Every structure is written in structure tokens, then in C-alpha cells.
Amino acid sequence: MKKKVRVKPSKGQSIVGFIVGICFCAIGVFEVIPHAGIFGIVWTLFAVIITVIDAINIWTNDGIATHEIIFEEDEKNDDKNGTIEERLIEVQQLYEKGMITAEEYKEKRKQLINRI
Fold this sequence. Notes:
By secondary structure, the protein is mostly helical. It contains four helices and two strands.
């Protein structure tokens, strides 16, 4: 099973990015566009996009994620260590020792089997 986690930069990173973005926008408008033409326009456009993204991450709670992490979970393992077979044996032993009720045993066994 895959689990996706979206990561947005911290407020500190966004503040630094915003300040640097403003500087790059100013450099683009006053230096790069007059001297480099089309390249200057592209430069300034990218600087504006980065500055806007950082501004959104500073002043909103949701923000814009810059990374996505995908976790691959082994379906044969339970949340705890051990294979499903080992976990089934463990649950059966708990039931046989009287540490869990018949209902708890059946419920946990059903949950473990459904993971297969």
C-alpha cells in the first residue's frame, strides 16, 4: 500500500525565499530584461512565481507543497513487527492464556486475515 505525504516549506524557509524572490524580481525588471530581452522576461516570470509561492506559504495555513514523499508499506507486515502469520500465532496464544476474550480474538484474527 502506498502512502503519500505532501511537504511544504517551513515559515522560515518561505520568508527567506520571499525576500530573495523580491530581490530577483527587482534584478529581473531593472537589469536582466533591459539587457537580455526574452531571457530577462523568462527570468523575471520565474522569480515572480517563486515569490508568490513563498508568499502564499507565509500567509496561509494550507500553503503550497513543494515535495511529495511516497511510502511503500509491506502488506505482509502488521503495524508492529512480524508477519501476519506470526501475529496470528501471537493472538492465538493470548487467547489460550485467557488474556483476551473470544470476541477480541475473533476480531483481531479477522483484521489480520483481511490484510492478506
